[in-house]
Amino acid sequence: MVTTYLRRFYTSFATHIIDVPTRLLAFLLSLLLIAVPVAKLPINILLILTIANLMAIFAASWDLLVGRTGQISLGHALFFGIGGYTTALLNVKVGWPVWATISAGVLLAFVAAVGVGYLTLRVKGPYLALVSMALPIILSGIILYFKDVTGGERGIGGLSYLFPQVTYSDKSLAEYYFTLILLLASAIILYKVANSHTGIVLVSILDDEVASKACGINVTNYKVMALAISGIFAGLAGSIFAHILRAISLQMLAVDLSFMAVIMTIFGGLGTIYGGIAGAFIIQLLDKYVLIDVIAVRTEWRLLIYIAIIIILIMKWPRGVARFVTDQINDLSEEREIEERGPHIWKKYKKKKK
């Protein structure tokens, strides 16, 4: 019985993972991330990787919305901030336990996404981008107005730890593994949605909305659905982020956070899901570790160098770094013609043929 199940598992694993080069690469990278703490990394690097896990979920959620339906959102920090502020207010002001506040943050982000979806359906293109960008700014104004409750510019601190029962020395490790598991689960779900029947419908809306309507597709419902799913994962990332840092501020609703989702996704590869994840890790490590600890660039030059590197890489690989890598792997996996295998092999082939 056990042998039969093991044989089936190996066959399925070999068919769906080993025989597909891109999936095998993703599997190996996942194993690498799981094994990272074995290297006894400092706490600050573990924190950077933990934040990168959450930013990867945030970027992947934006990619599902824009890369599949074409709804240009420049205010995706709205759902991230709603998740974070809901969690903080319920935890600090009301005294709810951690997991209840996280669930409430995700739920409220979902409700907000549905409401924003129906609110913004009348506008398209650049007008949709402007409306979406204005929403987190409006929420920031509301937070500043009710500063006695929300903390205003100071924000809210003193949130509970995710794992209060874990000793202080092991908290960083526990938070890293928790966010990594969350990232892997979120990536699988988003990838499945993007490549399911629903994802195909979303792509058809992206390609030709009028033709989709003519085929009987309820475009409104599918657009709201995409925004709702995207809002759930963005709210989840924001809720966990608040408890990791144990504080929130208006930076969770800042315009640059929304643009960071855009940059990470385009840098990795728009419309792929995995592109935003790869872009999040590369950008976080470049900005928070390489330019600070490895190269030790001066503060006033760091932002300029960071932007220059991102622009150069995007110009070199306009379809995204991750997509370029997967394309190369797919090319290698295909059987090449004899002429492409190098002049030495071609000469031996001609001699043998004669």
Description:
By secondary structure, the protein is mostly helical. It has a domain at 44-255. The protein contains 16 helices and 2 strands. The chain has helices at residues 2-18, 21-35, 43-69, 77-94, 98-119, 125-145, 147-150, 168-194, 197-207, 209-214, 219-245, 255-268, 274-294, 299-316, 321-333, 343-353; strands at 156-157, 247-248. α4 runs antiparallel to α5. The longest helix is centred in the first third of the chain and has 27 residues, at 43-69. The radius of gyration is 23 Å and the shape is globular. The relative contact order is 0.15. Residues 335-350 have low confidence and may be disordered.
Record the SSE blueprint.
Layout: H1 2-18, H2 21-35, H3 43-69, H4 77-94, H5 98-119, H6 125-145, H7 147-150, E1 156-157, H8 168-194, H9 197-207, H10 209-214, H11 219-245, E2 247-248, H12 255-268, H13 274-294, H14 299-316, H15 321-333, H16 343-353
Antiparallel strand pairs: 1-2
Helix pairs in contact: 3-8, 3-11, 3-12, 3-13, 4-5, 4-11, 5-11, 9-11, 12-13, 13-14
Secondary-structure-derived class: mainly alpha
- Order of SSEs, N→C? HHHHHHHEHHHHEHHHHH
Specify Rg, calculated over alpha carbons.
23 Å
Please report the distance between the alpha carbons of the first and last residues. Answer: 56 Å
**Runs with pLDDT <50, length 5+?**
335-350
Strand order across the largest sheet = 1-2
Estimate the global geometry from the Cα principal axes.
globular
Largest sheet descriptor: 2 strands, antiparallel
Query: Which percent band covers the strand fraction?
Result: under 5%
Would you report the number of β strands?
Answer: 2
Please state the average pLDDT score: 84
- Share of helical residues: over 70%
Question: In DSSP terms, counting alpha (H) and pi (I) runs of 4 or more, how many helices?
Answer: 16
